[in-house]
Amino acid sequence: MRSLVLALSVLAALVGSHATASAQAPDGQDVVRARGLDQQGVRAFREGRYRDAIRLFNAAYRLGGPSSEIWNVVRCYQRLDEPEDAASALALYLEQPDLRPSERAEALRELQELHRRPSPTSFDTDPIGATVFVDGRPAASPTPLEIDVSPGAHRIRIERAGYHPHESKVEARFGRAILVSVKLVPTSASIDAGGSPEGGTMATSGPARRFLISAEGGLFVPRLGSLQGSARPAGHLALRYVFNPESRVLLTAGLRATALSYGGTSPAPLCQMANGASSVEAGGLVTAGFAVRASPRIRIGADVGVGAAGLFGGESNAEASAAGCPSSRGLAVLGHAGLEASIALTPALRLIVSPLTFQAHPAFRGAREIPPSTVDASGLWWRLGSSMGFAFDAK
């Protein structure tokens, strides 16, 4: 009886052991499916379909495939140049208990190499020629340049004379390429002085330059009502205040004086004037304008203004009183609009060009307009012109 009980106990133990082993081992059908998926994955890898291969190798591993399925996934991520995912797959591979020492050593070596890969880092600045410091160490050449940056976080500083330094941080991971593109901002002194973007030698220190004084000479082509005049010499003086000298778009307000010589005008546009008598029209205006920095040295802008103009000089017409001419020519409301561009020659001196200036006002009192005169100067008096001169930036 005792022998029978012992035999039954041994049999039960053997059955239990077989059941436990069966529960731990993969199902036979799963193993077959895993092998099929592995073969499909190998074929997809050879054909360059790495995404499909990753999906197939992972599915094979989940069905009980060997640890080599994870190694295959690592190879796929490496071919796709996705080092982060390759590192994650290597970490999972190293957790497998069935790895041989040589396999584990190779996986560790590859994981360390992934983490140690330097990142090619490109530095592009506007303007070029800036010095790059990585963790306080200067690069061997100015921008644009490309250098390898070791893995980890790094402090970047970019310097160029006449510009504010730029500071930022980058993190190099798994050899990923990094692009640092920076538009440098001129210092206030360099902006107001028109500092050179090439050499930076024109930058100066000190307060921003808030006043602009300019003097220009040029030619106006006038039209006095229906009387078309020839090109006449003209001059302009302006004093402007810059509200925001450190900005890219400058806003200004100021005063402008303008003068135009009519020479020996014949026939005379006014009944008080004798034919061929020379005269000068002078005016003063209050102006407002803006200018945009096309570069640290070049400004392009425009202004508008309103004021008054008067006509001075000119020989009196002896018959003026008999003809009933007004005793005074009076003043006329003067309007002004103009375009201008300037370039810095020194920190304080600029060459200024006004390619197009328009001014207009009503006719002065006494404008000739009725027969027997051949002149009708009673309409709008206006002129177009261009001028050129110099401007001084004052602090």
TrEMBL record:
Domain of life: Bacteria
Pfam family name, one: PEGA
Boundaries of every PEGA domain copy: 124-187
The entry's keywords: Signal
Keyword Signal among record annotations: yes
InterPro entries: PEGA, TPR-like_helical_dom_sf
Protein's UniProt keywords contain RNA-binding: no
Name listed for the protein in its UniProt record: PEGA domain-containing protein
Biological source species: Pendulispora albinea
Membrane-spanning intervals of the chain: none
Signal peptide: 1-23
